[in-house]
Amino acid sequence: MDRWCNLLRMRLRSWMRRKRVETELDRELRYHLERQVEENLAAGISAGEARLAALRMFGGVSQVQEECREMRRTQYVENLWQDLRYAVRMLGKSPVFTVVVVLTLALSIGANSAIFSVIDGVLLKPLPYPRAERLARVFYRSKNFAKFPVNPWDFLDFRARNRSFESFAIYTRSDIQLSGVGEPVKLSAFRISAGYFTVLGVAPARGREFDFVEERPGNGNVVILSDRLWRRQFGAATDILGRKIVLDAKPYTVVGVMPPGVDHPGNAYNSVAYGDTVDAWYPFEFEGNPGQRGPHYLEGIGRLKPGVTVTQAAADFNTIMADLATHYPGDQGWTIYMVPLYQEIVGPVHRLLLVLLGAVGLVLLIACVNTANLLLARATARQREIAVRAALGAGRWRLVRQMLAESLLMAILGGGLGALLASAGVRALVAFLPAGFPRLAAIHVNGLVFGFTALITLATGLFFGLVPALQSSRTDLQQGLREGGRGATGTGRQTRLRSALVVGEVSLACVLLAGAGVMLRSFLNLLHTDAGFQPLHVLTARVSLPDTTYKTKDAIARFYKTLLDGLSTLPGVQAAGAGTDLPWTGYDDNLGGFTIEGKQEPPNESFHARYHAATPDYFRAIGIPLVRGRYFTDRDIKGAPRALIVNQAMARRYWPNEDPVGWRIDFFDDKPKDSDWYTIVGVVGDVKDKPQNSAAEPAFWWPIPQQPWGFGDMSVVLRSASDPVRLTGHLREAVRGLDPSLAVADVRLLDQVAAESFSTPRISLFLVGLFAALALSLAAIGIYGVISYSVSQRMHEFGMRVALGASSWDVIRLVMGQSVALTAIGVTLGLGTTLALAGILDSMLYGVSAKDPLTLICVAAAALATAAMACYPSARRATSADPVAALRAE
Question: Which range of residues forms the domain containing residue 576?
């Protein structure tokens, strides 16, 4: 132990002696360094060079290298700061030029950032569910239907037998009305199977999810509330669990409250835009005969097991489907189609958003090209300044860096202003987008958007600044320093480059103009298409009769007859009716099969059509014309011969060369009795499912007293000779007078309902048209700049031409010929690009092709006319050239 202590003591003493010697040497070295630096400074050497020379004499290699690096860093920072200060002074000397460039960049960068905010919220952000990439939607598919809902009993087999999903559930929209808490309120609600929230990966913030027992008939009187409804209607009561509330005149027990932000995971299978805000969920009860597979009206959703793909899961389900088809005739001919939930939600708007991003990207590119053109013109005027700097020793990279500093400074100013414009633009876009637009609540400006703005700002500054900087740095010293004569002029290379940039601007603007043109024609086609109904002066509202109170079809029929009889006597009411659906709001939600007396179904096909129920005056109130036969009357009641009305599409498909009136149809009966048949009593005009559909689908209507299922949820329709809004109070009073527990919901004008169907094409047209107008304006500025600069260079030439006898018209024609030639080249390239990209837009158009010749001709004419107007002032200026001054100069 002593030996180890002595050894440690000796090593410590040795280390202390070595540090003392090193300290004395360092002190000596610092003394000689300071003396040498003072001598170098006295000899006139700069401080940095003086210290570096002293280090070379007395210091080590590492010290010299570190000092050199430090000098380079200091010099770089000093030069950068000097470049920025010089750039600020130069931009301040040209305030108009600076403001024009900054505003142009701000508009284009702001538009790009705003559209990127929408794309980020809709396409890039993950869905608000854990491991959302494993969520998939489940549909049926057949020869006649690409996507079709699930039926209840098949769902139970799939849930029990599949090997692909961790959990599988179904849901269906089934609104319900809340009473007993203030005024009756209609709630947006869904009926769901047990395990629905497990599929989504969310859990109630309070209480529990539904149990499988609650899927049995009679056990489903429980409800889960949304956080929004809990706070709005119940004041965020902490004792809400276990409380009884009245829904559709039936007591329900609250068993859970969901966390904030939990809503419906996307639109319905048919993409009907009813929004995705949910107030309540209650259990789906499996009623009926499992042997009768029943109607298809449920939406399936599942969470895939780790490592299982959608394709593998679809194959698994198709194996089960094939087995079910051998036991149940109703399952024959169906296969399973699956799609990721993300794709199902954003699919309808995916192409639209990419088209908008491409359009706004073209605007930014045109803005960059236009700014580069302006910088080239400005650099030509600064040739003497650049030549003087080069003559004084500035290298080419130094000149390039100085001009890049100016362009980057303008880009930063434009980007900052663009970020502010983007914030306001996103708020305007969200307000402008339709209510059913997917993931609308996720659209806002965030850090990623600001990062995108910063990135495109930097890229923009480099893009429009680099080419002019490189061109300007090649200045000929003799030409640049020469004074008098004709002044500073651009080289042939610069002139050709500016002309090429103008051609590029025009071609890009033509692509946007062509897109806006065909979208305008498509929108006009939609507006002028035959709607099949008359939406003006019609008030609509939704009334839902709970089946606990209105248990029979007779009770439902009596309520609506009493209500409509009273409403029809109001002053100004021309017709009062009720129906299960309004046009353009969900006609493709329902599809029923049937048999036609005396007709056989074609091979591998079935008789099917959209089904609805209506009162006698529904068609008059909506404005659907009678083509043949008669409307329903008050005699079409229970016990009377069953009546049916079909549309023209159904008549054309199943009775192509016959009158369908008088033919009989049956539903649900294998061996129908005479009283089971429905006789077609009338044919009405076609109403398409959506205005952009190419044709209407076959459809039929039952009279309300004779409908098979007893629909109590109806749209009341009132046609008025004057302003229908004044009828709103009368409608509410009439419903309240018959049943105070009923809510009157979704009170709207029918023309507003129809207008909402055009919201997506309208916003597409507006944005693309706005971008196209901005692009054309920028192209016109570019043309004006090139021609104006060319005229300034050639004033001597024009003076000589006038002296030799050229007229003003000859000079104008010469100048405008240059503009038209450049524009014609740009138009040719732009229209060629449009034809190559036509397939991208075709699926978004109605009644017109992206290659429409009339549109392309109009685009070419608009571009040429714009170019002519842009260059005319310069052409007029060219006619003012002084021939005497030109001759004197010679």
Answer: 550-740
